[in-house]
């Protein structure tokens, strides 16, 4: 992540070469605002792609422009996102749930400058493409399109755009097959590739998983001291994977009935499409906003914790999702959302009526 800003800045060097290409249509990441000025120069339609959902897109705009957290002194004091009404009127966040530099109402940083400059360049584009679907976030799509702009066009879930890949058998796929034969539901645990989790927190997570009595598959990318002994103790019902896994295939496996996730938007979409409820554990960027949507509005999961989580709390959350009443309700809700996701991309679905 330390190279993100230099990389974004360096892409501007491509602009003169980019404008010599024979193009008829441009879709570019929202951070590459210069591509939209190229679209204007070439006289072709330009669309920006936002990696967030509609709710987080709207909430981020409100935080950056309206600064509802300006009067708040404490990082842990809730503030209302929609004091002026609209679909955010009952949504609260804290400054600790906003990533730097935007937790500060008056931030000064290179990231802020890039966000502002890109936003200005994107604003006159033809529209914004969103990896979501209307039925999941209708209030936020409508509010944005009525009050702001450019128009949001939902084209997701993109994970349904291609058929599931037939991967070669792996240790983890064989283990999941075995759990399916044993009729043992599995909790899938993964926090993406960017979040940094402390060794102390990983140890608490391991203890919570062990004490929960739930079968689990946990993806851990880096070595953790003491984890080998943990793996040996839980080998009958837990698998720790130290390699890349095909997350879509994991979530679509019949044995997987829950997903402990950082709530990155791609992971949320993949879980919805697989009809697997989420245990939200947001860590950075807009993940706290995604967790609010998952837990408070959609009801397709539980969680939404921040800061250090003790082993006892991990155990409680895991059991509640996998065998508790909240988990049962979340399963029903995510089944509905999954059906709506499939319907959105079909002929005559909401994606084709924009």
From TrEMBL:
Q: Does the keyword Disulfide bond apply?
A: no
Keyword Lipid metabolism listed: no
PROSITE patterns xrefs = UDPGT
User: What SUPFAM superfamilies has UniProt attached to this entry?
Assistant: UDP-Glycosyltransferase/glycogen phosphorylase
On the tree of life, the source organism's domain of life is Eukaryota
Which Gene Ontology molecular-function terms are recorded? UDP-glucosyltransferase activity
The cross-references to InterPro entries, in alphabetical order and at most eight, read: UDP_glucos_trans, UDP_glycos_trans_CS
CDD domains registered for this protein in UniProt: GT1_Gtf-like (cd03784)
Give start-end of the signal peptide. Answer: none
- Keyword field: Glycosyltransferase, Transferase
Family statement: Belongs to the UDP-glycosyltransferase family.
Q: Which PANTHER family match?
A: GLYCOSYLTRANSFERASE
Q: What protein name applies here? A: UDP-glycosyltransferase 90A1
């Amino acid at each position: 992540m330390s190279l993100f800003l230099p990389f974004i800045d360096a892409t501007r060097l491509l602009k003169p070469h980019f404008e010599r290409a024979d193009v008829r249509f441009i879709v570019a990441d929202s951070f590459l605002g210069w591509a939209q000025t190229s679209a204007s120069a070439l006289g072709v339609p330009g669309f920006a792609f936002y990696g967030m959902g509609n709710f987080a897109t709207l909430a981020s705009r409100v935080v950056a422009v309206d600064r509802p957290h300006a009067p708040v002194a404490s990082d842990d004091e809730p503030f209302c996102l929609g004091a002026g009404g609209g679909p955010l009127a009952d949504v609260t966040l804290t400054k600790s749930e906003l990533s730097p530099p935007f937790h500060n109402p008056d931030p000064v940083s290179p990231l802020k400058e890039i966000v502002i400059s890109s936003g200005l360049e994107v604003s006159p584009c033809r529209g914004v493409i969103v990896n979501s679907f209307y039925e999941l976030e209708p209030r936020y799509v409508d509010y944005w399109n009525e009050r702001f702009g450019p128009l949001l066009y939902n084209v997701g879930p993109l994970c349904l755009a291609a058929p599931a890949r037939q991967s070669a058998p792996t240790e983890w796929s064989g283990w999941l097959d075995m759990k399916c034969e044993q009729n043992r539901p599995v909790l899938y645990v993964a926090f993406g590739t960017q979040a940094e989790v402390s060794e102390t927190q990983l140890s608490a997570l391991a203890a919570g998983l062990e004490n929960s009595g739930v079968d689990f598959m946990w993806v851990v990318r880096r070595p953790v001291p003491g984890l080998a002994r943990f793996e040996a103790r839980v080998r009958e019902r837990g698998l720790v994977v130290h390699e890349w896994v095909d997350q879509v295939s994991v979530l679509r496996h019949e044995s997987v009935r829950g997903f402990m996730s950082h709530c990155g938007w791609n992971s949320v979409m993949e879980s919805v499409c697989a009809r697997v409820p989420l245990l939200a554990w947001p860590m950075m960027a807009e993940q706290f906003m995604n967790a609010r949507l998952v837990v408070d509005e959609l009801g397709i999961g539980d969680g939404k914790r921040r800061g250090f989580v003790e082993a006892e709390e991990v155990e409680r959350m895991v059991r509640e999702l996998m065998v508790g009443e909240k988990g049962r309700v979340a399963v029903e809700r995510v089944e509905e959302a999954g059906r709506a996701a499939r319907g959105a991309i079909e002929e005559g679905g909401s994606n084709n009526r924009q």
